[in-house]
C-alpha cells in the first residue's frame, strides 16, 4: 500500500468519527477475507482494498481495525490457531473425536492453499512461515500429544506408541481427504468418527 493511499484512507477514517461499537462479526469476515486473499495472491500482491471488497466492508472500516497489511496478515494467520481444548471425556476415542472435530473446523480450501502459500513464500518471507508454524502447526501437534499421552497413562495405548507419528497420520488423512473432495471440504462428522475408530484399532490390535 502506498503512502498516498494510506493518507487518503486516514482522512476517510477521520470523517467517519465515533459511532456504533465495532461488530465482532465484521472482524471475522475480514480475517476470513484476508486468509483467502493471502492464499490466492500471496504477500507481495496482498491488497487491503480487495480484502475489504471480499468481506463486504468499507475500506475505512477495515483500516480502523488494521492500519496496514502486515498487521492484518499476522492476525489472519493467528486466527487459524485451534481454540483451547474443552473438558475432554477422558477416553481415547472420544477425546480424539473432539480434537479431530476442532481440527476439521480449521480445514478447507483456504487453509490448504494458505499452507502451500506459506511454504512457497518461505524464502521471501521466512518470518511468516515461522509464525504460522509456531501459532498453528506446533500447538495443534501439542494438543494431539496431550491427548495421546493421557491415553498412555490410562493404559489405552502402549507406552511404545509413537505419538508424533500417530498424530501425523490422523492429520495427514484429514488433509488428503479434504484435498481429494470435490468441494475441498473436510470429511463430515460420521466420516471423522469412522476414521478415528479405524486408526485406534490399527494401533491397539496386537
From TrEMBL:
InterPro entries membership: Homeodomain-like_sf (IPR009057), HTH-type_TetR-like_transc_reg (IPR050109), HTH_TetR (IPR001647), Tet_transcr_reg_TetR-rel_C_sf (IPR036271), TetR_C (IPR011075)
Q: What positions does the DNA-binding region cover?
A: 47-66
For region Disordered, the annotated ranges are: 1-25
Q: Does the keyword Cytoplasm apply?
A: no
Keyword list (alphabetical) reads: DNA-binding, Transcription, Transcription regulation
Ranges of Acidic residues composition bias in the record: 1-11
Q: What is this protein called?
A: TetR family transcriptional regulator
Gene Ontology MF terms in the entry: DNA-binding transcription factor activity; transcription cis-regulatory region binding
SUPFAM superfamilies named in the record: Homeodomain-like (SSF46689), Tetracyclin repressor-like, C-terminal domain (SSF48498)
Domain (HTH tetR-type) spans: 24-84
PANTHER family cross-referenced by the UniProt entry: HTH-TYPE TRANSCRIPTIONAL REGULATOR RUTR, TETR-FAMILY TRANSCRIPTIONAL REGULATOR
Pfam families reported in the protein's UniProt record: TetR_C_11 (PF16859), TetR_N (PF00440)
**Keyword match Chaperone:** no
